[in-house]
Amino acid sequence: MDLYLNFIRPLFFSGLNADPEWMHNQFIGTLAALSQRSRQPGFGWICDRLYRSYNLDDPRLAQTLWGIRFRNPLGLAAGFDKNGEVGQLWGGFGFGYAELGTATWHAQTGNPKPRMFRLIDDAASLNRMGFNNRGAAAMAHNLDQVGHTQDMTLDRAIAIGVNLGKSKITELDDAADDYRRSFEQLHDFGDYFVVNVSSPNTPGLRSLQDPDRLARIFDTLQTVNTTRNATLKPSGQLVSPSDNTETQSKCTQSKPILVKIAPDLTWEAIDDVVKLAQQFELAGIIATNTTISRDNLKTQMIAATGNPVTDEAGGLAGAPLKARSTDVIRHIYRTTNGTLPIIGVGGIFTADDAWEKLTAGASLLQVYTGWIYEGPNLAKRIMTGLLDRLEAHGLDRIEQAIGLDHR
Ligand SMILES: Cc1cc2nc3c(=O)[nH]c(=O)nc-3n(C[C@H](O)[C@H](O)[C@H](O)COP(=O)(O)O)c2cc1C
User: pLDDT by residue (tens digit) across 313-366?
Assistant: First the structure.
């Protein structure tokens, strides 16, 4: 029997009637405290139990992408651990990697509450958080404490992605510089980075998906990568190419940059972003963020506000997003012949959902809403199902499933 599905979820979703954001913060606070103490004996034992309960390690699920080892293809999506407080402990829940943030250069409180809602009849969530976070410097400090980047000497270590957004107070014309500051601050603390230009909850943010503005951001960040790669020691001193200590290469190597797009873009707009990503040698695309669509929802009213769901601002995630996000993945894979890696996210609840996105063309997957609904056993359940499907298709490794629908 699944304790979460039978007892905890009913209690959290209806019994306690507590604000979802409040509960989220309690959960993050608990995990953050555990993560910070994970090297102390008693706490280390709890982390070990977590890992043993919720992980399914199998070499067929592992892959190396951008020089980073992913233990399995399922990651925690951005927005869950906004300040990077839990870090490596996400591996304890069976995730192959975790994307932290969105971090902005300036700390900001986000939109007025309430701003996070569950649409239970639709297996969905609606949020208009507005990038509430303590800023890039605070995230760097947190990640320093709770494990950043993949430590190859630890076999349980997971890859860490860092998702960057524009600060609300920064003008759109100055966006590239705002992203650059965060990128520089956090450069050594992430295995890969994401330019988030697709949240519907920061005014004007999605207009950064326009080619001119996006080109400026990509150019600025890749210049940081190039400069760091060429000349800098962690201390900031110039070094000669022969001065190639392990620390230096870890801290100065260029980092893979991806862009996260909205599901509401037209096909033409998606093609424009893809072309730019190729032009600026980005590592890949994350498809997709939440949607502003409210089509085909069973939920009519948001109980917490008493307003019709169509009147509530914010991004919708979960089951109603699944088909569109898979279509976007399929489109990008087809138009690029599978040459640009895609992280697929939107409406994953089951192994079938995960398989659908992989075979449509996603190299990696992420989940947010599904984890709230399905609980901590989700990753293990999905991994079990993926292994079954690999066997059923006569495949040896998860990489062979990527884009299978197109062959
Ligand atoms: C409450 C909430 C907050 C989110 N915050 C962020 C964020 O800060 N940055 C980001 O890139 N995506 C954010 N997302 C979007 C998710 O990362 C993901 O793209 C989206 O929820 C679709 O996945 P899902 O259907 O598994 O939830 C957020 C989603 C939710 C539900």
Answer: 999 999 999 999 999 999 999 999 999 999 999 999 999 999 999 999 999 999
Query: CA–CA distance from 310 to each of 292, 293, 300 (Å)?
Result: 10, 9, 8
> 71 is written with which tokens?
């233990």
12 pLDDT tier (thresholds 50, 70, 90): confident
Which atom of ligand 1 has the smallest separation from the CA of 127?
Answer: 1
Cβ atoms within 10 Å of 378's Cβ, excluding its own: 25
Name the burial class of residue 236, with classes exposed (0-12), middle (13-18) and buried (19+) by CB atoms within 10 angstroms of its CB. Answer: exposed
Strands 74-76 and 364-367: parallel
CA of 247 to the centre of ligand 1 (A): 33
What's the 228 CA to ligand 1 centre distance in angstroms?
30
- Range 217-229 average pLDDT: 94
Residue with CA at minimum distance from ligand 1 atom 18: 289
Collect all residues with Cβ–Cβ distance below 8 Å to 213 and sequence separation of at least 6: 172, 175, 176, 207
User: What sign does the dihedral 65-69-70-72 (CA atoms) show?
Assistant: positive
Q: Looking at ligand 1, which atom is closest to the CA of residue 24? A: 1
Q: Among the residues of 76-187, which ranges form H helices?
A: 136-146, 175-186
Q: pLDDT tens, 354-404? A: 999 999 999 999 999 999 999 999 999 999 999 999 999 999 999 999 999
Which of 50, 71, 49 lies closest to 62, judged by CA?
71
Looking only at Cα atoms, what is the longest distance across the chain?
65
Report the pocket of ligand 1 as residue ranges, CB < 6 Å. Answer: 77-79, 82, 102, 116, 125, 127, 129, 131, 163, 196, 199, 260, 289-290, 317-318, 321, 345-348, 367-370
Distance between start and end Cα atoms, the chain: 39
The answer to whether the CB of 316 falls within 8 A of the CB of 292 is yes
CA dist 84 and 160 (Å) reads 9
| pLDDT tens per residue, range 98-110 | 999 999 999 999 9
Ligand 1 centre and the CA of 77: distance in Å? 6
Q: Which residues are catalytic?
A: 199
pTM value is 0.94
Classify 3-406 by CATH class.
Answer: alpha beta
Pick from 291, 286, 292: nearest CA to 273: 286
